[in-house]
Amino acid sequence: DTETGAEVRRHIATRGSRVGVLGWLEDGKRMFSADENFNIVIWRWDNLERVQEEEEEVDKVNKEGQEFTAVAWSSDDICATVVGDGDVVMYDVKTGKKMWGDAETHVSPVYCLEMSRDSKRVFTAARDGTFAMWDSKTGDKLWEGGEAWAKDDYAEAEACWSNDGTRVFVSFRRGMGLWDGKTGNKLWERITDTYMWIGCMAWAGNDTKIALGSWSNDGRVVLLSARTGEAIRVASALERR
């Protein structure tokens, strides 16, 4: 229960494999999970039972036994995006047919995948520092970037769409930048100080600021201006001791 913190119900998966990816569907009543045995399952939250009809359809996605490193679900509840070792694949869940993804989309493993709120675009970032935007229906590459970061071996990509769906914030540990989600134009790019590796980020509700959490430096949190990328405030857990 999100208000009290009390456990409502617990369900043990019958397949006995670890779940690596988990997310909510747009209706807020169902969840999807992907496990280490390459299965994707849809769960209905009101009773935490598998939705049998949809499970049979989703299981067709597993024909190739591809390793799932990230999964996203479109808001129209039709397409699932599955990321493997450098490949991005889009499936029509209702038919189990692959829509696109035969060609290799990245040359290094992909662990960062973010779908736009309107489900028209898919953003991916690879461990070699490169990233790209794709048309979710056709698989056409809309734009790409990150070649300079690839040379510096930043790895560990994270990304987050703005709430209005117009911009994508991208970080590779110490490197970070903001791109126009439609055109791929770089709005700004910066390198953080030596002692901060970005581990997580979140946009403010009005999209004017971006908060960054650090993996190092005693729990440092930095608040950025979304317009310029400049730090507005820096706080640390040490300040509260």
UniProtKB/TrEMBL annotation:
Organism lineage: Eukaryota, Rhodophyta, Florideophyceae, Rhodymeniophycidae, Gigartinales
Keywords in alphabetical order: Repeat, WD repeat
InterPro entries in UniProt: PQQ_rpt_dom, WD40/YVTN_repeat-like_dom_sf, WD40_rpt
Organism, as annotated: Chondrus crispus (Carrageen Irish moss)
Ranges where the Pyrrolo-quinoline quinone repeat domain occurs: 85-232
SUPFAM superfamilies on file: Tricorn protease domain 2
Keyword Repeat: yes
Record's protein name: Pyrrolo-quinoline quinone repeat domain-containing protein
Repeat (WD) residue spans along the chain: 103-144
Record PANTHER family: F-BOX AND WD REPEAT DOMAIN CONTAINING 7, WD40 REPEAT PROTEIN
